[in-house]
Design goal:
By secondary structure, the protein is α/β, with parallel strands linked by helices. It has a single domain, classed as UDP-N-acetylmuramoyl-L-alanine:D-glutamate ligase (3-Layer(aba) Sandwich). Helix content is about 35%, strand content about 20%. The chain is built from nine helices and nine strands. It has a nine-stranded mixed sheet, with helices on both faces. α1 (about 20-30) packs parallel to α7 and α3 (about 85-100) runs parallel beside α4. The model has no long low-confidence stretch (mean pLDDT about 95).
Length: about 280
């Protein structure tokens, strides 16, 4: 276990209402014991009801943001979220090859909870190429299917099988998430075909009761940032998944207390911290 506070950089888009994107990332990093930083890939005009428009900063400005951080700060982890287009993806790819952060978690943001598309169709292949830079990829089931160019899995065993094939094809760990499946339980699993989970294991799975709430905006962003932070802290993938799942469950259970917006509201990222300050010690 690393006693130092991990420095975690989020490279992602914005959410003015604070539930997703870099705002959710920074909350998730802080809630799980890290120091969060952020580089903006896209300015997104959105709220709890959906996305209205997206403004992409110039590529040279994105490069300057990235290098301004990595020239000055030693990073323990990088979480990559919304990239949006080929140009942005290429800049981030080039920066990762230069900066070589020790841990890269890629959340392949393609479609928002509202159904709005957040990745140009032409950028899908560039995103698949970027997987070679990642240690962990955290797609939802629809994104997992797109990365494999296959239909979306509708059953948990099918999703796990897709995760194992993506892990083998791209030589990385895959977080397979069951949040979009039906049923009373919500499983999540790390799958890896190269033995990086410890011992001879090729997967570790954790399941919780499905939380009945409409306030799930930013769940994927939050989960990927949390597991990046906890893996940097603990250096133990199974422990990082278990602690992420426990924190996420608590954040969902108390999401309805926030009363943010009239659509799909955010998680309560800091419920556990505000009620038990020793929980991140």
């Amino acid at each position: 276990m690393n006693d130092a506070i991990p420095r975690v950089l989020s490279v992602a888009g914005t959410d003015p209402t604070g539930g997703a994107g870099i705002q959710a990332d920074l909350k998730s990093i802080a809630a799980n014991g890290g120091y969060g930083m952020a580089v903006v890939t896209a300015l997104v005009a959105q709220n709890t009801q959906g996305v209205r428009s997206v403004h992409t900063p110039p590529e040279d400005f994105l490069w300057n943001q990235l290098t301004a951080v990595s020239d000055d700060v030693t990073l323990e982890a990088v979480k990559i979220g919304m990239l949006g287009n080929i140009g942005t993806t290429a800049v981030v790819d080039q920066w990762l090859s230069l900066a070589k952060p020790p841990l890269v978690v890629l959340d392949p943001i393609m479609i928002a909870t509202s159904g709005d598309r957040l990745l140009d169709p032409g950028a899908e292949e560039a995103l698949r190429t970027l997987l070679r830079r990642a240690d962990l990829v955290t797609p939802n089931l629809q994104e997992l299917g797109v990365l494999l160019d296959e239909p979306t899995a509708t059953k948990w065993p099918q999703a796990l099988e897709q995760g194992h094939r993506l892990s083998a094809a791209k030589n990385l760990i895959v977080l397979v998430k069951g949040g979009h499946l039906d049923g009373p339980h919500c499983p999540d699993a790390l799958v890896d075909t190269a033995g990086r989970l410890g011992g001879d294991r090729h997967s570790c799975e954790v399941t919780a009761d499905r939380v009945k709430t409409a306030n799930t905006h930013g769940t994927g962003c939050s989960m990927s940032s949390a597991i990046a932070t906890l893996q940097a802290r603990l250096d133990d993938w199974e422990a990082a998944l278990n602690q992420t799942k426990s924190w996420l469950q608590d954040s969902l259970l108390h999401a309805d207390e926030l009363h943010i917006g009239t659509g799909s509201g955010p998680l309560h990222h800091f419920h556990r911290l505000w009620n038990d300050p020793a929980s991140v010690a």
